Amino acid sequence: MSSTRNAPLSPASLTADGAAWLASAESYPRSTRALWDERPTAPVVLGCGSVFDIVSAPSIFGRRMVDRLWEEGPGSGPVAMLRGRMLLFAAPGTAQRLPSLLRWEEFGRVGDVPPLLCHGTGDAVTVPGECASGSRWLVAPDTRNPWLPGPEVLVWAAVRAARAAVRISIFPHPDQGAKVYDVSRRR
User: What are the boundaries of each domain within the chain?
Assistant: First the structure.
C-alpha cells in the first residue's frame, strides 16, 4: 500500500514516481513522460483498463464517497477533480463490475446513488498535471504501485455516501396539518 492512505484530503502534488505510474498506462510511457516533463501542469489523456480504471462521480457525491473511504474504510487510491467531477482511480476491472453491483437488488433500493461514469478497457480519461488550473489532485499518486480500491469497496462507499445524504426523521414535518389563520386584521 502506498502512503496516500494517510494523506490529507487537500490538494496534493504529483510525484515523479506517481507520474511514472500514470504514464505506464500508455503504450509509449516515455513519450507521455517527455510530454509531461515539458509541460508539467498540462492535463494528459491516458488509457484506462490496464493499469487503472476510473470511476467518475459528481463532485459533491464523489467527495462523500471519498470521505466514507477515509473515515470508515480502507482509504482511497489516487483521486482527482476535473471539470466538476471527482475521478476515483480504481483497480482494473472495476468499470465492468461496479455498475452491475450497483444494480444488484439489495443496493437498487438506494435511489440516491447518482449515475457513476465508469471508464475501463478501451476508454481514455483526462488527468490533471501537477497544479493545472481547473483541475487538481486531492490524493495524488506517489508511488509506482499505489493501492487501488476494487468494485466491492467502491459500491460500499457509494451506498454509504447515499445513505448518509438521506436524513430520516420519525417526527412529521412541522407544517403538516397546521391550520394557518390570518391574524393581521384582528382588532
Answer: 12-163
CA-CA-CA-CA torsion for 152, 86, 22, 11, nearest 10 degrees?
A: -120
3-state DSSP helix/strand/coil % of the chain, to nearest 5: 35, 20, 50
* pLDDT tens, position by position, 105-146: 455 554 668 889 999 999 999 998 876 567 899 999 999 999
Residue 68, all three cell numbers? 466514507
How many Cβ atoms from other residues are within 10 Å of residue 122's Cβ?
9
What is the chain's Cα-based Rg? 21
Contacts of 163 (CB under 8 A, 6+ apart): 110, 112
- Give the residue among 124, 125, 108, 123 at the shortest CA–CA distance from 159: 108
pTM: 0.80
Query: What are 49-105's pLDDT values in tens digits?
Result: 999 999 999 999 999 999 999 999 899 999 999 989 999 999 999 999 999 888 874
Distance CA 75, CA 13 (A): 18
Is residue 137 within 8 A of residue 40, CB to CB? The reply is no
